[in-house]
Design brief:
Number of helices: 10
Number of strands: 13
Shape: globular
CATH superfamily of the domain at 98-263: RecF/RecN/SMC, N-terminal domain
Strand order of the largest sheet: 6-10-11-1-12-13
CATH topology of the domain at 98-263: Glutathione S-transferase Yfyf (Class Pi), Chain A, domain 2
Distance between the termini: 13 Å
Strand content: 15-25%
Oligomer: single chain
């Protein structure tokens, strides 16, 4: 599907609503109040379609000052974010360049989400690790203040070592699966020798205890996968430092396409303003690639931006879609 219209008429809002309705959150903001029309107290998104041969209906209701409410085929879900376990959606927006050009935290968060989508049974490991990290840091501060003894740290140190080792290993597995497709998609889009590198060492009890004095001084755990980074490179160049914005866009797009090909069920692809900085040759390559994948929504200002005939064109005008 190609969504066309002038800048500022609401194309991105349409794409964002699909992401909220299939993933339970916005790719733009985590402040739900920003998703409700200005001056209104509530909003609702309803999607109808088919999953395989079965009909599916999803609704997400937003109210000022309340948690989002999501329903799947009329049944209320525990949380809106539970939709992520029901429907696969991947999104490209210009602000997703932070995956490459941003700091290590942005890459860790991104690749941990990839890990969760590729291996749903392991999706809880990053959250479990971060929760345990928060407990160990709190225990460090209590010892620092003289409110407890060092022996109180032992169970948290052991758990950090256990979960940290699991998280490092699972990240490695996910990146090993993702890297070949990333290199192939990047190469065909004009970004040669693209690679991912995760040079990390799991924390051990011995390592954590060896730096305990420094951790107590700072009140934080100074070693572990919460400080790791993933290198996104083209040849010898770290694209964060030495990549152009165009190369960074190609890298993020290639990551998305590579992940989509690994998922057991083709995801819904939401591509916002992905064509504007691609030359005709790369647009043709991308269009051919997308034609063989699942459902895709692309936004553009003109029909001519997409070099193939889309299955559907939605023209957005101020306040309306037709």
């Amino acid at each position: 599907m190609l969504v066309v219209g002038r800048n500022g008429v609401g194309k991105t809002n349409l794409l964002e609503s699909l992401h909220v309705a299939t993933q339970g959150f916005s790719p733009r903001t985590r402040q739900d109040t920003q998703l409700i029309r200005f001056g209104e107290s509530a909003g609702r998104i309803v999607l109808e379609g088919h999953r395989a041969t079965s009909p599916i209906e999803i609704s997400v209701t937003l109210r000022q000052g309340q948690a989002k409410e999501a329903k799947l085929n009329g049944a209320k879900l525990p949380s809106a974010e539970s939709l992520r376990r029901e429907v696969s959606t991947l999104v490209f927006t210009p602000d997703r360049l932070a995956v490459v050009k941003g700091g290590p935290a942005a890459r860790r968060a991104y690749f941990d989400r990839v890990l969760a989508r590729l291996f749903p049974a392991r999706a809880g490991v990053p959250q479990d690790y971060l929760a345990t990290l928060a407990q160990r840091n709190a225990a460090l501060r209590r010892v620092q203040l003289g409110l407890s003894g060092r022996d109180a740290l032992e169970p948290w140190t052991e758990r950090i070592a256990e979960l940290g080792a699991a998280l490092v290993e699972q990240r490695r597995v996910a990146l090993t699966q993702l890297a070949p497709g990333f290199a192939e998609r990047a190469d065909e889009l004009g970004l040669p020798d693209a690679r991912l590198e995760y040079d990390a060492h799991p924390p051990t009890v011995e390592l954590l205890e060896a730096r305990l004095t420094r951790d107590l001084e700072r009140g934080t755990t100074g070693v572990g996968p919460h400080l790791d980074d993933v290198l996104v490179a083209s040849g010898d160049r770290d694209l964060r430092q030495y990549g152009s914005q165009g190369e960074q866009r190609l890298a993020v797009l290639s990551l998305l396409l590579a992940e989509a090909e690994l998922l057991p069920t083709p995801p819904l692809l939401l591509l916002d303003d992905v064509l504007s900085e691609l030359d005709l040759g790369r647009r043709e390559v991308l269009a051919r690639r997308l034609a063989g994948m699942g459902q895709t929504m692309i936004t553009a200002t003109h029909r001519s931006a997409l070099p193939i005939e889309p299955s559907q064109v939605v023209e957005v005008e101020p306040g309306a879609a037709k």
